[in-house]
Design brief:
single chain, Growth Hormone, Chain: A, 18 helices, about 75% helix
């Protein structure tokens, strides 16, 4: 007797029905991104403490942002203007290419040659960062744009966004907890060769995650453009103008920049605080993992809460929670670091609750912003909208640590010996207690400013509340149906 073949459940348009497979696959994509991205927080420590670049590193970060200014919009416009037919989808094809390059690019940022001349270190850093950043953008810009094509249902998008947060969280948690036990020596200093090996391994793991996502992604939203003789060619300057006028995209971008000022700008200061204030860098990952508990609890509730209250409404509440947690970080008891550690953890829990509420819907909000662009201008322009969003995020990721390092230097972080090439090295064991306390205050300032920026972007600029979003989706569905 022949075995009965199980038929796939299809939706009204003949696509595989949206389900947990889509959410897990999309989460794997951000897990892949973060396998490469997670070590960026260690980059400042590596280049100041291992490579001995001191304040030169701040200058290098500013220089590579010029490349970012060209790289992200350039790749976004290439994706948007690419009208070739691919076997599955052009976004998936770009992601595949980017995932290969990230294996090499991530490791190139941590080539351990501390004895090299200063000019050689400049070349090593800039070349490594440019290679990594190019391939990260090739993978990440199409990946972010992909959310709006997997489903046009608001609840489905909320689910994808929430699961992306899970992928991002796992991608950050694993390195966050495991790496401190690997990359630090017994004297609390950083081990350069181990950081390089970790970056190489994480690139390979990221590649595996991307391949899983590509294989299990279903594209359900038809946005293919039928080229006509009278249709105007893609205009990058017009697309840039559309982005500036796109309030949801601008608001979501301001919020994301705030989030990354908190996450990346404060990352170096947080690492040093655990080195010299709490005097235990190996527990830094565990503490940050503990702070993610609210995100874990909120994520399963995101879909239902978005359906009931709306993305904008929820994210504003989250920003307020983060402001409260940021204010609490100013409570410092330097005479009792154990008590201070408890206060720090509790305030991080409150801060992370707000961050968790926002992060679970943040990507769905960008998907809605892409739809908003189509609603107002008639053009989707996924690549340029998301690439500009990505550019400003990465600007915060680069400028934030650079500014933080300049402030840290003014507080006494860059301290002592100068090698034969004139590089000012940093021996954390020689930093004074007074410097440690000042850096602890700096961490509170950076997190608070980040929370305020999130509130401004989400509460004052982003304008797609629940009612407006429903109207937009209804009109877009009617328009697409009429054009078929």
């Amino acid at each position: 007797m022949a075995k009965k073949v199980k038929e796939k459940a299809l939706d009204a348009n003949g696509f595989r029905k949206f389900g947990i497979r889509d959410s897990v696959a999309y989460a794997a994509g951000d897990l892949g991104c973060n396998m490469s991205f997670a070590l960026k927080g260690t980059m400042a420590l590596f280049w100041t403490q291992v490579m001995g670049m001191g304040l030169w590193y701040s200058l290098l970060l500013i220089i590579v942002q010029v490349w970012d200014a060209i790289n992200d919009p350039l790749i976004g416009t290439i994706v948007d203007s690419d009208k070739r037919k691919y076997k599955r989808n052009k976004f998936l094809q770009y992601i595949w290419v980017g995932s290969i390059g990230l294996i090499v690019g991530g490791a190139c940022c941590f080539l351990p040659f501390p004895s090299a001349p200063t000019w050689a270190k400049f070349i090593i850093f800039i070349a490594g960062y440019v290679i990594w950043d190019a391939f990260y953008t090739i993978a990440n810009v199409p990946y972010g744009s992909l959310l709006s094509l997997i489903s046009d249902d608001p609840a489905d998008r909320a689910s994808l966004s929430a699961w992306r947060s899970i992928g991002s969280m796992v991608g950050n948690m694993l390195p966050m907890v495991i790496l401190p036990f690997i990359i630090y020596n017994e004297d609390k200093s950083l081990n350069g060769p181990r950081v390089f090996l970790a970056a190489l391994i994480m690139g390979v793991l990221g590649f595996i995650c991307f391949q899983f996502m590509i294989k299990n992604t279903e594209i359900r939203v038809d946005t293919e453009i039928t080229l006509k003789e009278d249709q105007p060619k893609f205009n990058v300057f017009k697309a840039l103008g559309n982005f500036v006028k796109n309030r949801p995209a601008v608001g979501a971008t301001i919020a994301a920049m705030g989030m990354f000022i908190g996450m990346q700008g404060a990352a170096t200061a947080v690492s040093v605080v655990f080195q010299i204030y709490f005097k235990n860098p190996k527990i830094s990952g565990i503490v940050q993992l503990f702070a993610m508990i609210p995100i874990v609890f909120f994520t399963p509730l995101a879909r239902k809460m978005v359906t009931k209250y709306g993305k904008k409404e929820l994210s504003v509440v989250g920003a307020i929670c983060s402001i409260v947690g940021g204010l609490g970080l100013f409570i410092i008891t330097p005479d009792n670091t154990n008590m201070d550690l408890i206060i720090y953890i509790l305030c991080q829990l409150i801060y992370s609750l707000g961050l968790g509420i926002y992060s679970t819907v943040s990507w769905a909000m960008m998907g809605d912003a892409i739809d908003y662009n189509e609603w107002k201008t008639g053009n989707r322009e996924e690549g340029i909208v998301y690439s500009l969003h990505s550019f400003f995020r990465k600007l915060a990721q680069g400028v934030g640590p650079a500014v933080a390092l300049v402030i840290m230097n003014s507080l006494g972080y860059v301290n002592n010996t100068v090698d034969e090439f004139g590089n000012a090295s940093i021996d954390v064991t020689l930093l004074s207690w007074d410097v440690a306390v000042k850096l602890r205050v700096l961490v509170a300032v950076l997190f608070f400013v980040a929370a305020v920026l999130q509130f401004v972007g989400l509460g004052l600029v982003y304008n797609l509340d629940k009612k407006t979003l429903a109207k937009m989706n209804s009109e877009l569905q009617e328009r697409r149906a009429a054009n078929k």
